[in-house]
Every structure is written in structure tokens, then in C-alpha cells.
């Protein structure tokens, strides 16, 4: 090749429109115009105030493993819904639990809604209305994505919250808030019921930010990757598995601007849903056409299989769950087989994940009941209706067989053939 001759490469990549960038953790919370915005930094504007909307997007359009585990959390938190802590108090409690607000929701319906929010956002919001006697008359569930905190006072406490349907500003430029689009409401403080008869209760676990962060925050990128893998295969099918292409053209005296214009023409021609990556090679001599080594489809399938398994495992771990709960198989034997894996996994998940969430929500409801001088409630989540595994004799030790078959205590003398009582 002549020293003056060179190859100029230009590439375009057609990305799916909903593919998300990496979250900017340094801008998660930022006070703007008296409101604590909850940002992702990925929708164009670094101050997009759209983190709850991101979590909703990931739930509906992210990963099936993620969606399945969120649904499981919700169902286990709801359990059998609210019931009196002491059975004899149920008649006294029923009128308040069954009373409907102006939206037609009673307290049990509201508990179901905040359970759904807590499973996704690790937070829930209640709107509380006081009557003229100072008692709590009505309770409403506020969608978490509609709620934002106000700025904290000099003591670090937040006194006001805001409700709006238009928080997320998915635009490349900063746009000021329209003050007519949101309502400012006092945060829950029953001692101020006369001055603030409408208040907001923000329910969350202890954390290091003002806003609650879901446990799966650390694996959001893996949820996005799972979605990207799905989009990749979908687009391959639509494009008849034509993954990439390379276009080679002799420069023939073309300027840099003319080459850019040629790339734009081809980009417009191939725009659409195919998401193909196109490589342009502008060369001085056709004999200098470059050789590109492409990964074969078989090798690519192996890479995606490995990545898919790693993605699923990381998402499961981010939810503090076990693979069996997401319908994923595990390598290795287990006493009782798959049924035992599922049974054990659900019990552990309830104990360490959903039961603590449930207690936070029930405690919030009990604050309302206590204020109205009513009995307390609880929620019972029955164990999964699975038949516990029955061990076969070959799976048991000698001591375990003695205990199961004859009710005998462990044999301290370890006699090989003990005399069995008649």
C-alpha cells in the first residue's frame, strides 16, 4: 500500500429507542426550586427527576426475571391482607377497615396498593385527611411516582411533600417547574391537624438517602442488559439474522464532508427497527479492501448464553432471592428435588425479604389506628401450599432413621445393630 494511501473508517449504530444509558449516581438527589428531585441522569437532562419512572419502565420493559420477583414480593407482602391483631377486636375494627373514601377504596384496598408500590420502589405514600374533631377520617394511597419531597430545613427534617403527575422532565434541556402542576402538602404530623388537615405519610425503610432506594438498585444495569439481549435477538429475527454489514467505497477524491454525507444517506436508508451496525470503509484503491474477521453465529450464541445466565443470576441476587423463585434451574442435587428447592427458597425469601417489608407497612397502618384509638392489625402470609419433601431411607443417616421410624434418641454408643423394642 502506498504510504499516502489510507483507509478511513466510519461507523453508525442503530440503537433501539428505549435502550437506556448508565445511571449517574452523583445526581440521584438534588434540590431544585425548593423540591428534592429524584434523578437518573440518563434521559437527556441530568436533572430529569425521573427515577421512579425509570423503575416503572424497568418493571414493564426490562427483564422477565425482575418482573417476576417484583410480583412475588407484592403477593407475599399482601398475604391475607389486614386483620385484627387480636381476634376478639375484629368487630370493633371492621367498620374502619371497610369504610370507603371518596375514591371508593377501603383500607384493605389501600394496603394492597401500597404493597404493590413497596415491592417496586421500596416505599409507599399515604394521604391522610383529618376531620373537625381531629380524628383521621380518610386515607388515600398516593402513587409513589407522583410524590416528591421538599427541601429539608436547617435541622435536616423535611416538612413538606409535593404531588404532581408531571415530575419527569425527559428532555435535553432544563425546564423550570410549572407551579400550577403540583400541590404542596404538609408531611405527617398529627399535632398540626388543625392547621394542616391534609397530610402525607412517606413510608420507607431506613436508608442513606432522603428517597428510598430499592434493594435491586445495584443490578439495574443488568436489568437493562437483559432487555438489550431480548431486543438484539428480536431485531436479528426481523432482519433475517443479518447482524452486520460492511460497505467499501473508493474515495475517488471525496472530501471528509462528502464521506460524512454518504454515511448519513446510508443511515437514513437503513433506519428502522433492524438495529444493524454498518461499517463504512473509504479506501484509495480497491486492492486495499480490508479483511474483517466476524464472530460466527455459533460462537455468538455461546456468548449470549453465558451473558444471559450471568444476567439472570445477578438480577436474582439483587433481589436477595434464590434462582428457584425466578423459575431458573440450579446445578446440584437437593433432598426432595425441585419442590424442596422452591419450598425452602420461598420460606427464606419471606423471612428475610418480604416479612420485613410487610412489618414496615403494617406499622404505618397501625400508627393511623393508634391515633384513632382503634385496635391494631396484622397481616398473615400463609406458608406456600407445597407438599414438604419426604426423604427416602437411602437419603438418611442411621441416626435419622432411628428417630423417624422408632422415635429413639441418638445412640451415643453408636451400636451398629441396636436392639429394636417390640
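Sequence proposed for the structure above (422 residues):
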Amino acid at each position: 500500500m502506498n504510504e499516502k494511501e489510507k483507509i478511513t473508517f466510519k461507523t453508525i449504530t442503530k440503537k433501539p429507542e428505549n435502550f437506556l444509558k448508565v445511571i449517574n449516581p452523583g445526581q440521584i438527589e438534588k434540590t431544585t426550586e425548593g423540591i428534592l428531585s429524584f434523578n437518573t441522569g440518563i434521559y437527556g437532562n441530568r436533572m430529569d427527576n425521573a427515577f421512579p419512572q425509570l423503575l416503572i419502565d424497568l418493571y414493564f420493559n426490562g427483564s422477565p426475571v425482575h418482573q417476576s420477583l417484583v410480583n412475588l414480593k407484592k403477593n407475599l407482602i399482601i398475604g391475607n391482607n389486614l386483620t385484627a391483631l387480636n381476634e376478639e377486636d375484629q368487630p370493633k375494627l371492621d367498620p374502619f377497615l371497610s369504610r370507603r373514601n371518596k375514591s371508593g377504596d377501603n383500607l384493605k384496598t389501600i394496603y394492597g396498593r401500597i404493597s404493590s408500590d413497596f415491592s417496586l420502589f421500596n416505599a409507599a405514600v399515604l394521604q391522610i385527611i383529618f376531620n373537625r374533631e381531629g380524628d383521621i377520617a380518610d386515607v388515600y394511597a398516593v402513587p409513589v411516582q407522583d410524590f416528591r419531597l421538599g427541601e429539608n430545613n436547617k435541622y435536616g427534617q423535611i416538612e413538606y411533600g409535593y404531588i404532581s403527575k408531571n415530575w419527569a422532565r425527559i428532555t435535553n434541556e432544563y425546564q423550570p417547574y410549572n407551579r400550577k402542576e403540583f400541590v404542596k402538602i404538609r408531611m405527617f404530623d398529627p399535632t398540626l391537624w388543625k392547621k394542616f388537615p391534609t397530610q402525607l405519610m412517606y413510608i420507607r425503610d431506613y436508608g442513606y438517602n432522603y428517597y428510598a432506594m430499592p434493594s435491586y438498585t445495584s443490578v439495574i444495569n443488568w436489568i437493562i442488559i437483559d432487555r438489550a439481549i431480548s431486543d438484539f435477538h428480536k431485531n436479528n429475527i426481523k432482519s433475517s439474522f443479518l447482524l452486520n454489514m460492511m460497505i467499501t467505497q473508493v474515495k475517488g477524491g471525496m472530501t471528509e464532508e462528502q464521506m460524512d454525507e454518504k454515511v448519513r444517506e446510508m443511515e437514513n436508508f437503513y433506519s428502522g427497527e433492524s438495529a444493524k451496525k454498518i461499517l463504512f470503509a473509504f479506501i484509495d484503491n480497491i486492492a486495499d479492501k480490508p479483511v474483517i474477521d466476524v464472530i460466527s453465529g455459533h460462537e455468538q450464541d455461546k456468548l449470549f448464553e453465558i451473558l444471559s445466565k450471568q444476567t439472570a443470576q445477578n438480577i436474582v441476587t439483587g433481589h436477595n432471592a434464590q434462582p428457584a423463585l425466578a423459575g431458573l434451574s440450579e446445578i446440584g442435587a437437593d433432598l426432595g428435588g425441585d419442590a424442596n428447592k422452591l419450598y425452602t427458597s420461598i420460606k427464606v425469601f419471606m423471612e428475610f425479604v418480604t416479612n420485613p417489608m410487610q412489618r414496615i407497612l403494617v406499622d404505618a397502618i397501625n400508627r393511623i389506628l393508634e391515633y384513632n384509638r382503634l385496635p391494631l392489625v396484622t397481616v398473615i402470609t400463609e406458608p406456600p401450599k407445597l407438599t414438604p419433601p419426604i426423604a427416602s431411607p437411602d437419603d438418611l443417616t442411621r441416626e435419622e432413621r432411628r428417630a423417624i421410624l422408632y422415635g429413639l434418641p441418638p445412640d451415643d454408643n453408636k451400636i451398629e445393630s441396636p436392639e429394636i423394642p417390640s
